[in-house]
Design goal:
Length: about 70
């Protein structure tokens, strides 16, 4: 299992296909990447800096303080 600030992800997240990962939004200095797990019927959103650092992760796709 993967550990995140909000808990653990089920093991099914280890086998998410490549086509389930998309750039959801691009902003000034950041990207939001969506990862859809069809087995769990959930989408995880990852807030990344433009150089690849992870800022935050959630299931809503909404991140405070973004322009």
């Amino acid at each position: 299992m993967f550990r995140l600030g909000f808990g653990k992800l089920p093991e099914s997240w280890e086998v998410v296909p490549e086509d389930a990962v998309k750039i959801h939004k691009k902003g000034s200095g950041y990207f939001i990447v969506s990862v859809t797990n069809r087995a769990e019927a959930q989408t995880l959103y990852v807030l990344l800096s433009s150089d690849g650092g992870v800022y935050d992760v959630n299931f809503t796709g909404e991140f405070d303080g973004l322009e």
